[in-house]
Structure prediction request, 292 residues.
Amino acid sequence: MAQILDGLKISGEIKLEIKTEVEKIIASGKRPPHLAAILVGENGASKAYVNSKVKDCAELGFKSSLIKFPETASETELLEKIGELNRNPEIDGFIVQLPLPKQIDQEKIIMAIDPKKDVDGFHPENFGKMALEMEAFLPATPFGILTLLERYHISTEGKHCVVIGRSRIVGKPMSILMSRKGFPGNSTVTLTHSHTEHLEKYTQDADIVITALGNPYFLKGEMIKTGAVVIDVGISRVADDSEKGYRLAGDVDFESCAEKASWITPVPGGVGPMTRAMLMKNTLLAYHSEKR
Ligand code: NAD
Prediction:
């Protein structure tokens, strides 16, 4: 039976480390780190994500600014605001919550963010630096997974790591990070996606499987080998009889995989809280990089 990679516990430790550092910063008479978030429109999930980021800031002693635009906002308006945030020395980092409404070109928006303030790590400059093993902001979810592997001393060197999903924010950067030099890293990586044939051929050979596809209970026990480490990034809503009418489901069929795996992340309580903690960590890094 697998042991749990407890993202709630480790994210709690990281948040405590950050909070302690912020308390010291404030005690020394300096201003706290400041994260800004731009939210466009009324997307329920986006609102919930941004609100949780604002809450995390308050909990850790950061200053936060939430900048809201209506669904009809223009690209120009958004670019102007990004320019302001780029120039504002009191703001260490900011995020633009995705997805954006159709009239706004997401690429243009990401490109407009000053890479030094790009705490989501989405700007191509940060992505390129990450790939080249230079110092960069790492996207929060892959950063969270690396940290989880690190804190549990999960061996990655020479291991076969199979990543399912090639999104810009999770799968693709994750595959690069696992193949980089050092720990966690030095893995032999297979990046799989919706066009991969006979996926189980790869997952059955994997020492580490990272699922980021958004397909509830996709990875079954019969698809992994005994002793594999299973990291579940997926978060989907699955209808049920509860009061809320749904529950959160990962990409992993936890029951059958936990029987064979050596380590496994739960959903909720695995990668999700790590992602939140790492955005705060990136903001603190941004604060220090400019300092002052
Ligand atoms: P996405 O939706 O942008 O892309 C999904 C990827 O999965 C694609 O590359 C696609 O090729 C691949 N895919 C789809 N079906 C497949 C199949 N049958 N076999 C193999 N590959 C397949 O992905 P995303 O934005 O990375 O999100 C993935 C999931 O992770 C979602 O459930 C999302 O909610 C969740 N997520 C969680 C966190 C977190 O903090 N836990 C963060 C980001 C995303």
